[in-house]
Amino acid sequence: MRVSTNQSQQIAINAMLEQQEKLSKTQKQVATGKRIFKPSEDPIGAARVVDLKINLETNAQYQKNINAARARLGIEESILSNSTDILQRIRELAVASNNASQTNETRNFISEEVNQLLEEVIDMANTTDGSGEYIFAGSKSNFRPFINNEKGEYTYQGDDTERNIQISTKRIIQTSDSGTYVFRSIKDGNKEFAVLDNKENTGTGIIDPGSQTGVYDDGTYAIIFDKKESLDPLEPITYKVVDANNEEVIPAGTVYVEGATIEFNGVRVFVEGEPDPEDFFVIRPSENQDIFTTLNNFVGALREARGSASQLAGLHNDLNRTILGIDNALGRVLEVRSSIGARLQALDAQENINEDYNLQIKTTLSSIEDLDYAEAVSDLNLKLTGLQASQKAFTRVQNISMFDYI
Description:
The protein is α+β, with helices and mostly antiparallel strands and 406 residues long. The protein is 52% helix and 14% strand.
């Protein structure tokens, strides 16, 4: 086989270029610390690197979601903490108002403070987050959730959607609570039944909020005090209890004893004072009542002038219900705060898990992508030697010609 001078030189040049290319690749690896630059260099490793980097990006987004959730829940916790302080102050005022030493004038002074505190609670319920979205409006976060309409009623313009955010591949955390759950769906009475006095009562009977004994059947009942048969002041007061169908549960003529318990169908109550004939109290299943209405009713009860003993008894009945309503609202707020605390702890725990996962991914990514410097430097020296050898070989053969031997 004949090899021309041109072929011989081209072969030598190609060999040098090949060595230079290998050396250049190794130099780039040493300079960057990376082992793979093109998928063709290590298809399996390159594909694995792509997957791992996607996981890192996804996990970084989860960490951002955790920070966003923590910020939003932190705002809600702060709002509810302030609301708790306000409700506790209002409860103190309700207890003070229930004291017999108060006068119409002092109760009116108290009503002014309660009214201001009510406005503060409404402002709390209408708080926005850093982006201007209402915290307690559900998915209708651009609408002010609570307004006082023309009738003086407190209406809700939000919805009951719970906002959630994903903080890991399999975990979603709730980042808000609806205004309905926090402020509106609060049971009145003792949460099983409510005890109401007839506003037309003329006696001094004051009924307690009652408690459940056994199984309450969700019925509606009335405790009705009977007419006296004579004008004898020593004749005992009697009563009966009837259901919604006017059927007697406790028969008429039952002697009333002040402070003694009255029990029937899971209900236990007692009455103090001296009810007049035909005075009555109603027991009905508990209903939802928003905290704003409870406080507004409190303001109205304080501002109503009370002079007679029966009017003062009505005030005490109103305030007993108010205190119970405030207690129920405080219980709901504390329940939500406890839930927020649990969610914040869950965020902290998941953040640590995500950080550990990040570290594992980076370790795996490094094992695939990063360069073994000791091996690379040794390879660099080897390739450099190879290039130098090919260059020396080329210089020795490039001037050789058959004509030199003729």
